Amino acid sequence: MDFQVVVLAGGTSKKLVPLVSKEVPKALLPVANQPVLSYVLELVERSNLKDTIVVVEGEEATLRVGGWISGAFVDRLHVEVAAVPEDVGTAGALRAIAHHLTAKDILVISGDLVSDVPLGAVAAAHRRHDAAVTAMLCSAPVSGTAEPGSSGGKDKIKKPGRYDLLGLDATKQFLLYIATGAELEKDLRIRKSILRAVGQMEIRTDLMDAHVYAFKRLVLQEVLDQKDTFHSIKQDVLPYLVRNQLKSEVLLNGTPQAEENGTQKVISQSSQQMLSQILVNASQPDFHVRYALGPNGSAPIRRTHKCCVYITSSNNYCARLNSIQAYSDINRDVIGEANHLSGYSFSAHNNIIHPSAELGAKTTVGPHCMLGEGSQMGDKCSVKRSVIGRHCRIGANVKVVNSVVMNHVTIGDGCSIQGSVICSNVQLQERVVLKDCQVGAGFVVTAGSEYKGEVLARKEK
User: Fold this and answer.
1) Burial environment of residue 292 by CB neighbours within 10 A (0 to 12, 13 to 18, 19 or more)
2) What is the CATH classification number for the domain harbouring 209?
3) 253 near 298, Cβ under 8 Å?
4) Contact 12/25 with Cβ under 8 angstroms?
5) In a domain, 278, yes or no
6) Which of 393, 429, 401, 438 is nearest to 417 (CA)?
7) Do 220 and 358 fall into the same domain?
8) Percentage of the chain exceeding pLDDT 70
9) Which residues, other chains included, contact 292 with Cβ-Cβ below 8 Å and sequence gap of 6+?
10) How does DSSP classify residue 250?
11) In-domain check, residue 400
12) Using an 8 Å Cβ cutoff, are 180 and 235 in contact?
């Protein structure tokens, strides 16, 4: 397929502090002991998409990500790594690399996506409809799409869920309306013109934007050029395209029939019916042939560009690592119900224990757990639903439950860790108790300390 892939890998996301740092940019955060970016690149590789640009914010993060890619994917994928300034946003990142984009269609993927949805299916839907943009939608978490800032630390207070509000046509193939979570605190108003034009619209709050988009390159570049203040694909570019697909003038006998009247659009009955008919017929293969000339071969109309959706199957796994809570959830899933994504072979006990790892007497590593290369555990330890990284040194009588322990971590005798993330090179001295905490890289927790819902990290220099 003539698609170029752009992976937006971010930089050192503030939402993921203290898990990320200058040494560990977001793209290299380990999920089941593999950088999260590897899940996206392997998805690209499986989809047989050859031409990929990975965009990273900040020069230092770019060097680290580029160095890892050149080792892990050498002779596997043709990957170009491009640096953009920090905090330019997703639209700004695309604008910065626009001169590298040459294919007819561009597939833009968030670098924090962990999914088994075949990218070829999204690309095929985009081509089938000759769409300006096709957005991939997946099932939203049952509790709603939590704001990425919520971590599971002190601020773990139940907040009302924020949803993406999506208006779909009757066939569930066309995106007619979008309001993102931030806008939904206000009363929702849908212009009568939209409802008039489409006849009927199904409003959905159970789907979320997976941050996978197929764009016609010329449409994308035109929007980025004309709208130089656009910062975000989801917040700016996509809503703009959705709003404007219904604004195209419908010409009857060469005369525009629709005109703006304040916020209300007055549409003559004939052009309203025609626009409605265009949307009804838009999924039919000969749509472009008929409507390029206008109905019955009469005067030409300015063709509406189409905004389409690809809705993933409920059997697919689709999650984004955009919060500390999501980080914990995805690690748990990838060694649990979605273990096919990890690429590892699981033992008869449904866990992964590296052959070089050492277990003390009466130590148990339960199902849905992972123990990395070269790690050692003392006697009478218990690990449940947790990932332990490489070359960790764990003393005796240690309990680890629902947690992620990264590489080169030292844990003293008698420690208890629950619902926490322990970053690389951390030292927990004896009898430390942690519940729902995040411990930043290199931090030392003194013997006998007890913390609940805390972020423990060294101050950035």
Assistant:
1) exposed
2) 3.90.550.10
3) yes
4) yes
5) no
6) 401
7) no
8) 78
9) 300, 303
10) P
11) yes
12) yes
pLDDT bracket for residue 192 (50, 70, 90): low
Nearest to 324 by CA among 204, 448, 152: 152
Of residues 287, 184, 190, the one with CA closest to residue 242: 190
Within 10 angstroms of residue 48's Cβ, the number of other Cβ atoms is: 9
Whether 81 is in a domain gets the answer yes
Tens of pLDDT along 306-334?
899 999 998 999 999 999 999 999 999 99
How does DSSP assign 121-186, residue by residue?
HHHHHHHHHT-SEEEEEEEPPTT-B--TT--SSTT---PPPB--EEEE-TTS-BEEEEE-GGGGGS
How far is Cα 400 from Cα 402, in angstroms, rounded to an integer?
A: 7
Specify whether the CB–CB gap between 9 and 20 falls below 8 A: no
Residues 311 and 374 in one domain: no
Count of CB atoms within 10 A of residue 424's CB? 20
pLDDT band at 193 (very low <50, low <70, confident <90, very high): low
Q: Do 423 and 434 form a contact (C-beta atoms < 8 A)?
A: no
Amino acid present at 244: N
8 phi, psi to nearest 5 deg: -90, 100
For residues 22 and 452, give the distance between their C-alpha atoms in angstroms, rounded to a whole number: 26
Using CA atoms, how far apart are residues 104 and 412, in angstroms rounded to an integer?
A: 57
For residues 230 and 237, is the Cβ–Cβ distance under 8 A? Answer: yes
Are residues 170 and 28 located together in one domain of the fold?
Answer: yes
**pTM of this structure:** 0.84
Same domain? For 50 and 176 the reply is yes
Distance CA 79, CA 52 (A): 5
Other CB atoms within 10 A of residue 260 CB: 10
Beta-bridge mates of residue 34: 31
In the structure encoding, which two tokens stand for residue 33, read together?
A: 């002991």
Q: Which tokens sit at 17?
A: 């502090």
**How many domains in the chain?**
2
Q: Is cis: bond before 30, omega within 30 of 0?
A: no
Q: Which residues contact 31 (CB under 8 A, 6 or more apart)?
A: 39, 114, 321, 327, 330, 331, 334
Amino acid at 256: P
> Contact 190/177 with Cβ under 8 angstroms?
yes
pLDDT bin (cut points 50, 70, 90) of residue 146 is very low
Q: Which domain holds residue 357?
A: 345-456
* C-alpha distances out from residue 255 to 268, 273, 350, 441, Å: 12, 16, 68, 66
- Please give the Cα distance from 381 to 134 (Å, whole number): 49
pLDDT in tens, 12-21: 888 999 999 9
Query: Which residues, in sequence order, are bridge partners of residue 418?
Result: 401, 435
Cα gap 359→364, rounded to integer Å: 8
